[in-house]
Amino acid sequence: MATPASLSLPLLLLVVGAGIAVLEAIAPGAHFIVVGTALFVAGLVGVLFPPLGGPLPLAVMVLGFGAIALYGYRELRLYGGTGSGRTRDSASLRGRTGRVTEPVTETAGQVKLVGGGFNPFYAARSVEGTLPVGEEVVVVDPGGGNVITVESLAGGLDDIDRALAAGRAAADREVATEAEGPVETEVGGADVGESERA
């Protein structure tokens, strides 16, 4: 019969693995799903089969179950397989689309992003005005991932439109600069300004 002391390490792994799995369900990204699975399964085996509850067998099981979990995670394409379906950082949210789940104003609201991770719901603010529930939106500012700024896709500008507008503005500035002509000219190796030429 197993003593409470012999179950302490496997029970600890079981609890820690379960805790990591719960945290992973709350926060998007699947950063620790493999570790949580490996710890949980190794702890479960150690609790069910006390002779395997020693530190060395548990360490071997954590490594083995971790390798199996990693293989399954990639092959079964959980969270998009090799990472295409999860966010890597807040900047990767820029340009993602989604739908409004709670009316979004300049101070409050919530959206559900397509490919936004395990928990695709994000607190959101609008660029201007109020966006009603069901409105399709695009992320224009990821804001560190905690609160994102969105705008409506219905008639709004997207990243390409903004880039084209910025390019046109830069070209207009360049043309205006060339039309003014050179301000200084070089005479005999010295620069002479407009005021000196008069």
Blueprint (SSEs and pairs):
Blueprint: H1 4-26, H2 33-48, H3 55-75, E1 97-102, E2 110-113, E3 121-126, E4 136-141, E5 147-152, H4 159-180, E6 185-187, E7 190-192, H5 194-197
Parallel strand pairs: 3-5
Antiparallel strand pairs: 1-2, 1-4, 2-3, 4-5, 6-7
Describe this structure in words.
- The N and C termini lie far apart (107 Å).
- β1 and β2 form a beta hairpin.
- α1 runs antiparallel to α2 (33-48) and α2 packs across α3.
- The protein is elongated.
- The chain is α+β, with helices and mostly antiparallel strands.
- Residues 80-87 and 185-198 have low confidence and may be disordered.
- The longest helix is centred in the first third of the chain and has 23 residues, at 4-26.
- It has two domains: 4-80; 90-180, OB fold (Dihydrolipoamide Acetyltransferase, E2P).
- The protein has five helices and seven strands, in the order αααβββββαββα.
- Strands 1-2-3-5-4 form a five-stranded mixed β-barrel. A two-stranded antiparallel ribbon has the order 6-7.
